[in-house]
Amino acid sequence: MPLGERPGDKSESRYCGIETDFNDDMPQLLSSNLSYGGFDFVVAPLMDPSYRPSLMQKESGEYSVLPFAGSDLVLSPSQWSSHVVGKISSWIDLDSEDEALRLDSETTLKQEIAWASHLSLQACLLPAPRGKSCANYARCVNQILHNLNSMQLWLRIPLVKTDDDTMDTNSDHLNDSWEIWNSFRLLCEHHSRLSIALDVLSSLPSPNSLGRWFGESVRAALVHTDSFLTNARGYPCLSKRHQKLITEFFNHSIQIVISGKAVHNLQRAIVDTDQNHSVERHPLRPYLDYVAYLYQKMDPLPEQERFELGYRDFLQSPLQPLMDNLEAQTYETFEKDTMKYIQYQRAVGKALLDRVPDEEALAITTVLMVVGAGRGPLVRASLQAAEETGRKLRVYAVEKNPNAVVTLHSLVKLEGWESIVTIVSCDMRHWNAPEKADILVSELLGSFGDNELSPECLDGAERFMKEDGISIPSSYTSFIQPVTASKLYNDVKSHKDIVHFETAYVVKLHSVARLTPTQPVFTFTHPNHSSDKSNHRYKKLHFKIPSDTGSAMVHGFAGYFDAVLYQDVHLGIEPSTATPNMFSWFAIFFPLKTPVCVNPGSHLDAHFWRCCGPTKVWYEWCVSSPNASPIHNSNGRSYWVGL
Description:
Strand order of the largest sheet: 1-2-3-4-5-6-7-10
């Protein structure tokens, strides 16, 4: 049964499994652990641990019929699929110097995964690599992965990291279990069906070291019974750090599996009052109950997060608002973002108060132009600001999308704004305004600030602003940070072409590890009184990887923006200053063709260019240290924004 019910949470982490020993009676194994124990699935060996292929050879050199598995008919296909994760024999050692053991291991691995695939299991748990060399193990797994249809392979990785001062610098940091994982997945070419099952032990690495794993493809966490403490009543519980980690696992759809023997001596008999006899409780049920308690005490998902669930780690091409007219559904989604329009209303209100003194409020009419008016939310916010401050407005609503203009006309008529609002159906860059504007209001910002060509549009619109006119927004800055984002990288890689690796994507980042704080990239200010009107930009960024993080893989860069609307009124999505409860913008993701491995305490140098041509604007990016990457999207060959 699921751990509990949380509104909006339909993730796999609602289900908790149990790691079991070999049992050739699979129906009984399921009954004792699921029906009786309350677990949702078992992680069970598929092969008798005493089986060795070399002992079963006939004189002909052929292998006999597999002796290790019962009939697939003992369970229904849906039971195999829903309730059993195959556990590959733990004795196998594919990098052993003992040739007989190595060959037996290769044969057994292939036999067991073939049998698991035949049973339509969703996943198999692979034993952790032994020692520091895993090349042959990875080679065999990679061969198998290329022939699998849908089954996931979970590589068991102990969640350990030694302190940096005790790390053997001659061992390529392989004391850190992330290094073992990284070596294995590189040998397997970042295969999308190779995932991680973390062994959670009694001691945990540093918080920064743990954070790396949330950008990796972790599917399960095997929580060992000896990592549990004992509470005042004698029941199992977890340390605060373990509790926080388990909660993060829940938030990232990582399933919990209880592993090990009961280490708490609890009264196991419970009385069934209906039948008036006692029934022995499953020995690991108290551990399951505690995990369920942690799940149930989590706060419900906020409405905004429930709305965004379907967008998590889903790559979308950025909007091209100059080239394409937005659809009604897109307008409707953005118009529901009340926080954004509250901030705009505050900014317009402050600008009006600065522009018109109280004693002249009834005598002066402020000319306000909304450029890119859409279906009118900024017009409404501006008029509400005028009403709130007691100022008079004359509004021009400029919009190039003829379909949105139809809606604007209807809105103006419905609200009785005909004497205040003039609708202009025109591209702002080509409009000849009948008078100059006191205040110019726009919402042309993209996830990276300037990526929807706000600089070009507002530069073109400045000719109808007064010399002392106010632009809202008055400035905006883009920000970048290196991230581990295994899922995003594999999604881009699945297209098998250069174009997708040279495209920036809008994405609701979730399963990512943010490796350093953000750094600012490009800033644009409006009105732009500079003599140099070029919007071409270049920035070199120098990131330092924290020494307590451990090594990590950089799959690309997450991009954000922060905008000053007016004075102290801002809005943005840069993580440290993000406007709460605002969903109009997700982050932007710049992938790297070849991920870059960074060591603890090392530096990562990244370069970003904003390039401008007569018909398009595009970004180019690369890494120059610790390894040089190719320059992505040279000359805008794969991704650009059309003017």
